[in-house]
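REQUEST
  id: r-88c1
  op: predict_structure
  target: Biopolymer transporter ExbD
  payload:
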Amino acid sequence: MAFGSFDNGGASQPMAEINTTPLVDVMLVLLVIFIITAPLFHQAVPVDLPRVEASRLDDRPQVIAVAIDGSGRVFIDGQAVERSELAARLAELGARGGQPELHLRADRGTRYERVTEVLADAQRAGLVRIAFVTEPPR
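RESPONSE
  id: r-88c1
  status: 200
  body:
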């Protein structure tokens, strides 16, 4: 079905243009409705909460700071640890209770093999929350 004028005097060609004015009108109406109703979504239901005095829970996890310098030496909380006693020391710190976090700082020149050895010892000690500490670029 072709839409066009009722003029039969010439070659009857279908009109290939779509009238977008009604579409724009509907979109503007929807925009106005959205602008009016959007602030209503941010208002919460007013609830009068009870007032109770309670102590705050201190849920900060225990942090184990492990650093590896450029030569491959390992430090736990600033104290140098030998390779042979690293796993035992991490197991001891992990068994203190809770789920401690291991923050690993490795020098840029540290061999990847040394980092993986420390990560393997931490995994054997039961530490599953491990974070790699970096510095932002300058």
